[in-house]
Structure formats: C-alpha cells, structure tokens
From TrEMBL:
Record bears the keyword Transmembrane: yes
Superkingdom assignment: Eukaryota
Protein name (database record): Major facilitator superfamily (MFS) profile domain-containing protein
Main subcellular location: membrane
GO molecular function terms attached to this record: transmembrane transporter activity
Organism from which the protein derives: Meganyctiphanes norvegica
Membrane topology of this protein: Multi-pass membrane protein
Keywords: Membrane, Transmembrane, Transmembrane helix, Transport
PROSITE patterns linked to this entry: MFS (PS50850)
Length: 519
C-alpha cells in the first residue's frame, strides 16, 4: 500500500506541475573584464534521462510551480593568439621557455634603446654648440625623432599582418643600431651645414627603426602573453626606466674616458648584440594568417574608449616632457647643485621603474584599467600643481620647495606608471567590446597608434614648455599643465558613467529575456 501511495503521489506532483521530464536551461557566457553576454545557443541538459543515481536530483515538493531565473556564470577567458582573444588570471601559471627567452630579449632591447636615447640629451647640445648650431636647430634635431615615430608607426602597423613580423622586427633593430653607432662619429664633421644634415638624417634613420620594432613588440605581446599582458607591459616600461636611469650615469663615465663617440660606440655595440638574440628568441608561431587582415586606423579610432586611452597616453607623455627644457633651470634657481639635480631626475625614473611592474600586476588582477587611469591622472594633477610651487599656493622657503619638488617628482613617476601601463590593454578591450575581431591586424593597428600617441605628447610637450617659459614662471607653467590631466579625469568619469548606464540597461534586458526553470 505504501509503495502504491508513494507512486501515485509522484504521479500527481508530476501531472500538476507539468514537468515531464524536468529540463534545466543554463546559458554559457563569455566575459571580458566585468562584462558578460550569453551565447546564442543554450546548453540544455535533461535531468529526467540522467544515468547517474544522484539522490540530490530527486526532491519531493508539494504540487506548486515557482519560477527562478537561471544564473549565468561568467567565464573569465579571453584568448588572443592571432584568431582568438583570451584573458585569464595568471596566478599559479608559469612562463614557458619560449616566453622567457622572448621576454628577456625584449627587455634587453628596451634597455639598450632608451639608454642610448638618455645619453643624447646631455652630450649632443654641447657638441652642437661647439659646431655653432643654434639652440632652435638643436631642438629640431631632437623633435624630428618623435615626429618620424608619429608618422611611421601607423604605417608599420598596416604592414604587420602582411609582412612577417619577425622581419620587420630585425630590420628595425638593425636600422636603429646603425644610426646610433654612426651618430657617435658626427664629432669629426667640421662643416656646420653638413653636421646639421647628417644629424637630422641619422635621427630619422634611428626613428624609423625604433618605430618599426616598438610597433611589432606591442603587436605580438598580446599573442605571446595572453594571460598577463599588462604585467609584461609593466616589465617593458621598467626596462625603459632602468635604461633612463643607468644611461646617463654610464654615458658620463664613458664620455670622460673617450669623449663624445665612446658612449654611442659602447651602447650601440651592446644593442648590436641583441640582434642575434632577438633573431633566435622571436616567436615563430606569431605569423599573419588569412584572417589577420590589415585594419583601418579610422575604424579603430571611431571607438570612444580607444580614443580616450590614446588621449590619456598623449597627456602623460605631454605632461612629463614639459619638464625636459624647464625643470633643470628651475632647480638651478633654487640653488641645487648638478649632483642633486641628477639625483632628482634619477628619483623620477626610479619611481616609474619600480611602480610599472606592480601596476601591471594590479591591472591584470582587477581588470579595471580606467580606474587606474583616473587614479594616475589625479596623482599627476596634484604633483604638477605642487611641482615648482603653484602661484595659487602660499609662499614657502626655498628649502621647503626642494622637499616639495622631490615628493612631487616621486608622485609624478607613480602617476605615469598608473596611466601608461593600462592603456594598451584598454584599447584592445574597447575594440573587442565594439565588435572588432582581435587578431594580429587589430593588435598591430592599436600598437602603431599607441606609439604614435606617446610620441605626439613627447613632441609637443617641449615646444609648449619652451613657449610658456618665455612669459611665465616654472610654477605657473606646471599649474597650466595640471589642467590637462584634470580635464581628462572629468571626461573619463563621464565616459564610465555613460558606459555603466548602458551596461545596466543591457543586463536588465538580458535578465528579462532569460528563460526560467521550473521547480
């Protein structure tokens, strides 16, 4: 009797609830950062025909029907290996030998390149002055380097999906090595006009090579290190900072031993040794495929999030480069010696070097690049406001101004790391969200525009600073400069608010359209 009663009870419940057999509908989902969207095809699993004896799947309820929305679990996997975009947490993962060798060669290349760039600033003006070259021409020799990178980086980005990236990479390094070694021999040119022409020509050749391999590196990093792209970018920027720190110190020592040519010969030869290393360590599997078609620059720049990332990068390089022609005279005015001035510049580069990999680690961990940018821009605004002591602040003694400048310089180095490191990953993220396939072609265009954006700020900053310094004090100059990151903070917050509102509306629509399961 009990068995018959039990069977009839189950039949009543089943008939009343009309769930023969019970089906559970669950949606897979994909996620980039904090967004998810359900796939088109639901994954339907029939529990009525399950072959396993799972006691938890058989539950007795009173005859009732309740509707519960099925929760969708976001899957944090994005892959970028030419055709796919993968992004997953890298804690607990290990780099392969191929990744380690490629990373080491890139770090050596970055160190050598920026070490050579850093020794030109203190030595070339002295040599140019000895040849009778005016300061205006001297400034143009420096500016043409950034101008060529601005023009050529997008051009190289169009070539990467067509030409073998490895070939472009090695050709760029070779051009840069050739120009740097030859630049050390311009001291033997006595004719002023020939000296100027050769200086311009070698700087153009060096910029052609630098734009080439910098564009290739940032294009292949997402494919080679899909799980920790921001960390790798942080390590590369740390190599930049180390080169900028060690380069002047090493250059001064070599200059005292062998004059103008020796620093360029030694560092150029060191960079030459990286060519065979880069030849063997460049990933052979990162090759253009049929799907990797060249992308239009205008197509990438049509996305607001991408444009904002470029503006942040240009703002950082612009704000930092305004200090190149003006900061050293300001420190002279408050009575600092040459040695102390060198240490203050060292603090700026050292802070950036230490902070860069840590910021990359944090960005990969929290997946919120815009938040890091806003934090960096806020710190930059404060540091520029206090650097040189804004005229809006109460007057302080020169001794207090020295300490204030030291703290401001350290904050500026931290702010640069917070703003620069997340930009490239943010560009790819916004490009993906707008429906653009993330392949080698898209990454190449983003890489070329990244290099061009930084070079634009680096080119316009000294021009702006030189013009403003003729009419205003250093403190007034930095106060006006602080308005640039402040304006970007407002724009970024408005962008995030609009984006958040659209996201909430989209999620509400998905929630209302999600099928319900019957219990």
């Amino acid at each position: 009797m009990e068995g018959n009663h039990f069977s009839s009870r189950i039949a009543d419940i089943t008939a009343t609830a009309n769930i023969i057999p019970q089906r559970r509908v669950s949606f897979s989902s994909t996620c980039i950062s904090d967004e998810w969207t359900p796939l088109l095809k639901p994954n339907i699993k029939s529990h009525g025909k399950s072959k396993t004896n799972d006691s938890s799947s058989l539950q007795l309820h009173r005859p009732s029907v309740s509707l519960v929305p099925v929760r969708s679990t976001p899957v944090r996997r994005v892959s970028l290996r030419n055709e796919s975009f993968r992004e997953e947490g890298y804690f607990g993962t290990k780099f392969s030998k191929r990744q380690i060798f490629a990373l080491v060669s890139m770090l050596l290349l970055y160190f050598a390149d920026f070490a050579i760039l850093s020794i030109m600033e203190p030595f070339f003006p002295l040599e140019a002055e000895a040849k009778g070259v005016s300061p205006a021409i001297n400034g143009l020799v420096f500016s043409v380097y950034s101008f060529v990178i601005v023009v050529m980086s997008p051009v190289y980005s169009k070539c990467i999906p067509i030409v073998n990236p490895r070939t472009l990479y090695l050709v760029g390094i070779s051009l840069n090595v050739f120009s740097n070694i030859c630049f050390g021999m311009i001291q033997f040119i006595n004719e002023q006009s020939v000296f100027i022409v050769v200086s311009f020509g070698l700087r153009v050749f060096g910029a052609l090579g630098a734009a080439c391999y910098l564009t290739v590196i940032y294009a292949v990093v997402p494919a080679l290190f899909p799980t920790c792209m921001n960390l790798i970018n942080g390590l590369l920027e740390a190599a930049v900072g180390i080169g900028m720190c060690i380069g002047p110190v090493l250059g001064v020592g070599l200059y005292s031993l062998g004059g103008f040519s020796l620093p360029f010969f030694v560092l150029g030869t060191f960079m030459l040794f990286t060519v065979p290393i880069c030849w063997f360590t460049f990933p052979k599997d990162v090759q253009p495929s049929i799907q990797d078609t060249p992308k239009g620059v205008s197509n990438v720049l049509s996305k607001p999030g991408v444009v904002l990332s470029y503006l942040v990068l240009a703002c950082v390089s612009f704000s930092e480069s305004t200090l190149f022609p003006t900061f050293q005279p300001h420190l002279d005015d408050i009575g600092l010696s040459i040695d102390l001035i060198g240490w203050i510049y060292f603090l700026l580069n050292a802070t950036y070097t230490i902070a860069s990999p840590l910021v990359g680690l944090a960005v990969d961990r929290f997946q919120a690049p815009e938040c890091f940018m806003i934090a960096g821009l806020s710190i930059m605004t404060i540091s520029l406001f206090f650097l040189g002591h804004s005229p809006l602040l109460p007057n302080i003694s020169p001794e207090m101004m020295i300490y204030q400048d030291i703290i401001s310089v350290c904050l500026l180095g931290l702010a640069c790391a917070l703003c620069i490191i997340p930009t490239f990953a943010a560009m790819l993220k916004h490009t993906k969200e707008e429906g653009e396939p993330i392949d080698l072609g898209t990454a190449a265009v983003c890489s070329g525009l990244w290099s061009a954006s930084y070079a634009i700020g680096e080119m316009t900053g000294p021009l702006y600073a030189g013009l403003m310094s003729e009419y205003f004090s250093f403190g007034t100059l930095t106060t006006f400069t602080a308005l640039v990151p402040l304006l970007l903070i407002v724009i970024l917050i408005m962008f995030l608010f609009i984006r958040f509102s659209k996201k909430m509306k989209a999620r509400a629509q998905i929630f209302t359209a999600t099928p319900y399961k019957t219990i």
